UniProtKB/TrEMBL annotation:
Cofactor entry: Ca(2+)
Function, in words: Secreted tripeptidyl-peptidase which degrades proteins at acidic pHs and is involved in virulence.
One of the GO biological process terms: proteolysis
Cofactor note: Binds 1 Ca(2+) ion per subunit.
Annotated keywords: Calcium, Glycoprotein, Hydrolase, Metal-binding, Protease, Secreted, Serine protease, Signal, Virulence, Zymogen
Record flagged with keyword NADP: no
Gene3D superfamilies: alpha/beta hydrolase, Peptidase S8/S53 domain
InterPro entries: AB_hydrolase_fold, Peptidase_S8/S53_dom, Peptidase_S8/S53_dom_sf, S53_propep, Sedolisin_dom, Tripeptidyl-peptidase_I
Binding-site residues for Ca(2+), renumbered to this chain: D1045, V1046, G1064, D1066
Recorded coiled-coil stretches: none
Official protein name in the record: tripeptidyl-peptidase II
Length: 1083
C-alpha cells in the first residue's frame, strides 16, 4: 500500500512547552502517532507525562500524511526532523510511539541510535528482530485489555528479556528494558478516544478503567523510566515493583506457552539426534543407535502432549503407571523412530506395572512475519501421534482388547477439554472473573475423522473453531480430528507401521489462555467502552482519503449535484479467510479436495454479509430517506445499489464531489478524494463506488506496431512473426485438436474495444487455416457493446480474440465487452464489474478460462477497491475459473512505462501493476525470439498492497537470494511477486480493419497462455476430470516442471536495468513459458 499512501510527508506538527513549574536538565520528547489516529489525540497523554516528570520536557507531535507514520525510513525521518525543529536543539531526545507509531519509533531509533537517548513504546513489544540487540534503553508499556497487541505477545517479550537468561528484575534491568502491563486499560486509551480507526473499533476490548486514569498510569510509568535515563532520580523501586507485578500477572500465560513448547520461547530439541537431557527418546527396545546431539539448551517435547498420552491411555495408574516421552517433529515423517511406540513388562502379572510410551508432536502457528501482535502468538493446533487406547490396554495384558477395531468415543475431545480446564484454572482470579462475566466459552464437540484413514488427510484437516449461538448465548465449538487405526486389519498388514494408532488435533493450553484473555471476550466486551469518551454511533469516521492521482487535475466545470447516480455499496463479506482457504484446497494438487470446485450457492452462502450488516446499512439508508423499494441487491447480497442525487450522496458520505480531467486522454470524471461513514455502519461497508477511484478504468496495456514479416532466428513456423502456427510449434501443441463441447474460454474487452468477425475470418484464413470461418460469441457486461464492423475494430480486442480462437478452435470462445456506463460519473471499474457479473451466473454458464489484457499501475487503485476486486477474483477461482491477466508493458515502471517512479520523498521506486498483483490470479509476462529471452517490456516486480502468498515462498526466496542487495529499497520484498508465467509477447500478426499488423505487449502473452490452459482443460474434461481452475498452487508446486525456464533478458524502467531473468523464478518471465505436452503429462 506504500505507493498509494506516501504521496506526502509530515505536513504539520504540534509543539508543547514544558510546564513552568518544572526545573532541571531539559529534554525533548517526540511522540509518533498510531495508525489513523490524529497526532493531536495524544496531547492529553503527553501533557500528563510532562506533569508527572521531575524535569522539563519539550514535546513535539509530528502529523503524518493520512495519519500513518509508516516505518519507511526516509519518509519517517524527515517528518520527525521537521517536527524536532520546533523544539530547542542540543537537548537529549526521547522517541515515543503508539501502535504503528511504536513500530516507526523502533525503526527510527535503530537507524539513528546516536540521535536518541531512549525509546518508549506503547501498545507494542520490541520487534523480534531487535529483541536481543536494541541499541538503547526501551520501555514497553502495554494494556491488559489491548485487543490488538495481545498480552500473549507481551509475555513472549518478557520471557525473552528476563526469564530466558535469568535476568533479575533490578535497577539495572528496569533501566534497560522494563516491560509493564497496565491492568484494565485498552489499546485506544493511550489517545483521547475521539477518533477510533476501524481496526481498533473491531478488535479493541472495553476497558475497566476510565481514560483519565489510563493517561495518568501511562504517564507515571513513563516518567519513572525517563527520570532514570535523565539521571534526575536514582531510586528504581517503584518501577521494579511494576515490572515484578507484570511478571506475576504473566506467569499463567508463560506456563501455558511452556505447555505447548512455543518456539518463540523455547528451542525444540532435535529428535533426530537425542539430547543428553532427553535421554531415551524414543527409547523403545528396537530403537536404532543414533548420534547424540550436544545441545542441552532445548525442550524435549511438548509438555501437554504427555498429559494427552495419559488421557489417551485411560489406565488405572495406581496399577499401570505410565511414563510418556514426547518429541517435536514433523508428523508426516514415517521413519520408525518418529512413530509412536509403547512397551511394558506387564505380562508377568505383577502390579504396579510400568508402562512406557513415546509420542510425536508438531506445533502449528499462524504466520506473523510483520510481528504486528495481531495474530495469535499461540499454536492453532498441536498435531499429535499417539498409540491407541486399545494398544495401551493390550500392553497392560487386558485380555478383552479387540484388535480389529478402533477406539470408541471422542478421546481427542477429552484431551482438549483437559487443555481448556487447565488454562481456566491456571488463570488469575481477576481474569477468570472477567471471562466468566463476558467470555464466550469453548465447548468441545464430538471428534470427526478423515474420509479415509490416510495420514495426509489427517494432517490437512485443521482443528475446528466455530462460533455458534446456543440458547441465545455465543459459544465457540471446538472440533478435533481423530485419526484411528486398528491393531490388526488388512490395511495394517499391508502397512505394518500404521497399526494401532490414534492421532489427534490437540487444543493448546496457550491458545485457550489467549482466548480467555482476549479473543473470547470479543463478542461481549469488544464494544467501544462506555467508561471512556465514546463517540456516538452517528459520529463519522473517514473511510478513504487519497491525494489526486498523478495525471489528473481538478477541472473547472461546475458539477450538477442534482444528477442521479447509481451508487454501489460493497457490504462487508463474511468468512473471506475461509473462502481463500477453500480456494487453496481445491487448487492444491496435494489436497484431497483438489478439483472439487465450489458452486455459486456454496460461495454465496460462505461469504454472504451477516444479517446484522445488511440491517445496519439498510436502517442507516432508511434514516436518510431511502426506502426499501429504492434498494437493489445482487444475487449474493454483498452489493447494495441505490440511485441517489449527487447532493444526497455528498450529505450521506460527507464527501465533496468535483470534476477532474486527465489531459492525456481527454477523459473527465466526477469524483471525491475523501469520504466518511457513520461509526455504526463503518465496519459493515468495504467500499462505495463511485467515490475515490479515478484511474480504475483499466487502461489498455500498450500494444505497439510490430515489425511485420521481420526475420527471426527461429524455426520456419516463427520466421515471419508470431502466429497460431508458430505458438503451437514453439509450445509443443503439435496436432492436438480440442473436442469437448463443454470447454469454454473467454476474453475481456473494455473502453469501446470491438472485435470484427470479418477480421477474425481473414486472420484465420491467413494464419490459422484449421480455424477457418471460426466465430466468437459476444456477451455484454454493464451495457457493453460490440460493433461488428472492421472499421470499428480495436487492435486490443482483435488481438485477444484472434489469438484464442486461432489456438483453441473449435472450443467455444466468449467475447466479454464491459461498458463504461455514463461517461463522467459511472464506475470505470470494469474488472470488478466483469467479475461481479460472472459471480452472479451459475457454474454452468461460466467459462473455464478467462484472459484479460488490461491493467494499470497499482497505486492508481485505492487499496479498498483492489482488495475487494481481488476477493471477487478469489470467488471465481474457487468456482473453477482460471483467471489470466497480462502483467503490463512498462518493465519495472508500471503497466505503461509512464509512472514517475518516485515515492513522496523523491526516492526511486519500482511500480507494480494491478490486477497482476492479486494473489488469486495468474499473471503473464512476455518473452521474445527463439530461443526465448525476456521481453524488455514485460512488467514485473512486487506488490505494495498484497503480501506474498505462501505458494510463492520457495521460488521467490530463491530469486531474492540471487538478487541480494541489488535495488534494495526500490521494491517490497515481502509483497506478492509477479508475473507467474510468460509467453511470447512481440511481433504478433493480427488483422484489424482488414489490414495485417504486428503487435507487441503482454496483451499478446495473456491470451496465448490462457489458450494453452484451455487445451489442457479440454483433455481433462474429456477424461471426466475437473478443469484446472486457479492455477498458481499447482504451477508453483508441480506445474513448473512443464514450463520452459527463461534465463536471459531483463525488464528495464525507471532509468534502471530492472530485474534480470535467471534460472528458476524471476519477476520478468515468472516460472517460464508453457510446454503443452509436458503440462498435459503433469495433470
Amino acid at each position: 500500500m506504500l505507493g498509494l499512501l506516501l504521496s506526502s510527508v509530515a505536513a504539520a506538527a504540534t509543539y508543547l512547552a514544558p510546564p513552568d513549574s518544572k526545573s532541571g536538565p531539559e529534554a525533548v520528547l517526540v511522540f509518533i502517532q498510531g495508525a489513523q489516529i490524529p497526532s493531536t489525540s495524544y496531547i492529553d497523554t503527553v501533557k500528563a507525562i510532562q506533569d508527572a516528570s521531575n524535569f522539563p520536557i519539550h514535546a513535539v507531535l509530528p502529523e503524518f500524511f493520512l495519519d500513518l507514520a509508516l516505518p519507511i525510513q526516509s519518509y519517517l525521518h524527515k517528518g520527525i526532523q521537521d517536527a524536532l525543529n520546533l523544539a530547542p536543539s542540543d537537548l537529549p531526545v526521547y522517541i515515543v510511539g503508539h501502535s504503528l507509531g511504536a513500530a516507526a519509533a523502533m525503526e527510527e531509533a535503530t537507524a539513528y541510535p546516536d540521535q536518541y537517548k531512549a525509546c518508549v513504546i506503547y501498545g507494542a513489544s520490541v520487534n523480534r528482530k531487535y529483541q536481543y540487540n536494541f541499541p538503547m534503553p526501551v520501555l514497553a508499556v502495554n494494556a491488559e485489555l489491548d485487543g490488538l497487541q495481545r498480552v500473549s505477545r507481551v509475555g513472549e517479550a518478557f520471557f525473552n528479556y528476563f526469564d530466558r537468561n535469568n535476568t533479575p528484575i533490578d535497577a539495572d534491568s528496569v533501566s534497560s528494558h522494563p516491560i509493564v502491563i497496565i491492568k484494565g486499560m485498552s489499546h485506544i486509551q493511550y489517545a483521547d478516544g475521539e477518533s477510533v480507526p476501524i481496526t481498533v473499533s473491531h478488535l479493541d476490548l472495553k476497558p475497566d478503567i476510565n481514560i483519565a486514569e489510563a493517561h495518568q498510569q501511562t504517564a507515571t510509568v513513563t516518567s519513572l523510566f525517563l527520570c532514570l535515563q535523565q539521571q534526575t532520580c536514582s531510586d528504581a523501586t517503584d518501577l521494579i515493583q511494576l515490572v515484578q507485578d507484570t511478571r506475576a500477572y504473566l506467569d499463567p500465560m508463560l506456563k501455558a506457552f511452556e505447555m505447548e513448547a512455543s518456539p518463540n520461547l523455547y528451542t525444540p530439541c532435535n529428535s533426530d539426534k537425542p539430547s543428553p537431557h532427553c535421554p531415551y527418546y524414543p527409547a523403545w527396545p528396537l530403537q536404532p543407535n543414533r548420534q547424540m546431539s550436544p545441545d542441552s539448551n532445548c525442550i524435549c517435547g511438548v509438555p501437554f502432549t504427555n498429559t494427552a498420552a495419559h488421557i489417551m491411555a485411560g489406565l488405572d495408574e495406581t496399577k499401570y503407571p505410565l511414563i510418556n516421552v514426547d518429541a517435536i517433529h514433523d508428523v508426516s515423517d514415517t521413519k520408525p523412530y518418529h512413530h509412536a511406540h509403547i512397551w511394558s513388562n506387564c505380562t508377568t502379572g505383577a502390579l504396579p506395572c510400568l508402562m512406557n510410551s513415546t509420542t510425536v508432536s508438531q506445533v502449528m502457528y499462524e504466520e506473523d512475519s510483520s510481528d504486528s501482535g495481531f495474530p495469535s502468538a499461540s499454536a492453532y493446533e498441536i498435531r499429535v501421534k499417539m498409540k491407541a487406547r486399545q494398544i495401551y490396554k493390550l500392553f497392560s495384558s487386558d485380555p478383552n482388547v479387540p484388535l480389529d477395531s478402533v477406539d470408541q468415543g471422542s478421546i481427542c475431545a477429552d484431551i482438549n477439554q483437559a487443555s481448556y480446564d487447565w488454562a481456566l484454572n491456571a488463570a488469575s482470579k481477576d481474569v477468570q472473573d472477567r471471562f466468566n462475566q463476558y467470555g464466550q466459552p469453548m465447548v468441545m464437540q464430538p471428534d470427526t475423522a478423515p474420509i479415509l484413514p490416510i495420514g495426509p488427510l489427517f494432517i490437512n484437516s485443521k482443528l475446528g473453531f466455530k462460533d455458534a449461538k446456543v440458547n441465545g448465548k455465543w459459544e465457540l465449538q471446538v472440533t478435533s480430528v481423530g485419526f484411528k487405526t486398528p491393531e490388526d486389519s488388512f490395511v495394517t498388514h499391508l502397512y505394518p507401521d500404521s497399526n494401532g494408532y490414534h492421532y489427534c488435533k490437540v487444543l493448546s493450553p496457550a491458545r485457550v489462555m489467549e482466548w480467555i484473555h482476549t479473543d473470547g471476550l470479543r463478542k461481549n466486551k469488544v464494544a467501544y467502552a462506555t467508561a471512556m469518551p465514546n463517540p456516538s454511533s452517528n459520529s463519522f469516521l473517514i473511510k478513504d482519503s487519497i491525494a489526486v492521482p498523478s495525471g489528473w487535475v481538478q477541472g473547472n466545470a461546475p458539477v450538477d449535484l442534482e444528477q442521479t447516480v447509481d451508487f454501489g455499496f460493497g457490504l462487508t463479506q463474511s468468512n473471506m479467510d475461509l473462502l481463500v482457504a477453500k480456494l487453496y484446497e481445491v487448487s492444491d494438487p496435494s489436497h484431497p479436495n483438489y478439483g472439487k470446485h465450489l458452486s455459486k450457492e456454496q460461495v454465496d452462502a460462505l461469504t454472504a454479509p451477516l444479517p446484522e450488516t445488511v440491517k445496519a446499512v439498510t436502517d442507516w439508508l432508511a434514516e436518510n430517506g431511502v426506502t426499501e423499494s429504492d434498494i437493489n441487491f445482487n444475487s449474493g447480497k454483498d452489493w447494495l445499489h441505490v440511485k441517489l442525487p449527487l447532493s444526497k450522496a455528498q450529505q450521506l458520505l460527507q464527501a465533496n464531489y468535483q470534476s477532474f480531467t486527465h489531459p492525456e486522454s481527454g477523459k473527465t470524471v466526477i469524483r471525491t478524494t475523501k469520504y466518511s461513514l457513520p461509526q455504526k455502519v463503518h465496519s459493515h461497508i468495504d467500499l462505495i463506488k463511485p467515490t475515490t477511484l479515478f484511474g480504475a478504468r483499466p487502461k489498455q496495456l500498450t500494444t505497439r506496431p510490430g515489425k511485420v514479416h521481420s526475420k527471426r532466428d527461429a524455426s520456419s513456423d516463427c520466421a515471419n512473426g508470431v502466429t497460431p502456427t508458430c505458438l503451437k510449434s514453439l509450445y509443443n501443441v503439435g496436432t492436438y485438436k480440442p473436442t469437448n463441447q463443454n470447454n469454454v474460454i473467454g476474453v475481456t474487452a473494455y473502453g469501446g474495444q470491438y472485435a470484427s468477425t470479418s477480421d477474425l475470418q481473414q486472420f484465420t484464413k491467413s494464419f490459422a487455416s484449421s480455424a477457418r470461418n471460426a466465430k466468437f460469441t459476444f456477451v455484454s457486461i454493464n451495457g457493453g457493446q460490440n460493433v461488428d464492423d472492421p472499421s470499428q475494430g480495436g487492435v486490443e480486442a482483435e488481438l485477444d480474440i484472434e489469438t484464442t480462437v486461432g489456438l483453441t478452435w473449435p472450443t467455444k470462445n466468449l467475447f466479454y465487452s464491459t461498458g463504461d456506463g455514463d461517461n463522467s460519473i459511472q464506475y470505470f471499474h470494469q474488472p470488478d464489474d466483469w467479475a461481479l457479473a460472472l459471480i452472479d451466473k451459475p457454474n454452468s454458464e461460466l467459462p473455464q478460462v478467462v484472459s484479460t489484457s488490461y491493467g494499470d499501475d497499482e497505486p492508481n487503485f485505492p487499496a479498498d477497491f483492489a482488495v475487494r476486486a481481488c476477493n471477487d477474483f478469489a470467488k471465481l477461482g474457487a468456482r473453477g475459473i482460471s483467471l489470466i491477466f497480462a502483467s503490463g508493458d512498462g518493465g519495472v515502471n508500471g503497466g505503461h512505462g509512464q509512472s514517475q517512479c518516485q515515492d513522496a520523498n523523491g526516492n526511486t521506486v519500482f511500480v507494480p501493476v494491478f490486477p497482476a498483483t492479486c494473489p488469486y490470479i495468474t499473471s503473464v509476462g512476455a518473452t521474445t525470439s527463439v530461443p526465448e529471452t525476456a521481453a524488455q517490456l514485460s512488467s514485473g516486480g512486487f506488490s505494495n498492497y498484497f503480501t506474498r502468498p505462501s505458494y510463492q515462498d520457495s521460488a521467490v526466496d530463491s530469486y531474492l537470494n540471487f538478487l541480494g542487495s541489488t535495488y534494495q529499497g526500490y521494491y517490497n520484498s515481502s509483497g506478492r511477486a509477479f508475473p507467474d508465467v510468460s509467453a511470447q509477447g512481440q511481433n504478433y500478426q493480427i488483422v484489424s480493419g482488414g489490414q495485417v499488423q504486428g503487435v507487441d505487449g503482454t496483451s499478446c502473452s495473456s491470451p496465448a497462455f490462457a489458450s494453452i490452459i484451455s487445451l489442457i482443460n479440454d483433455n481433462l474434461l474429456n477424461k471426466g476430470k475437473s478443469a484446472l481452475g486457479f492455477l498458481n498452487p499447482w504451477l508453483y508446486s508441480k506445474g513448473y516442471q512443464g514450463l520452459n525456464d527463461v534465463t536471459s533478458g531483463n525488464n528495464p524502467g525507471c532509468n534502471l536495468d530492472g530485474f534480470s531473468a535467471t534460472q528458476g523464478y524471476d519477476p520478468v518471465t515468472g516460472l517460464g513459458t508453457p510446454d503443452f505436452k509436458k503440462l498435459l503429462d503433469l495433470v
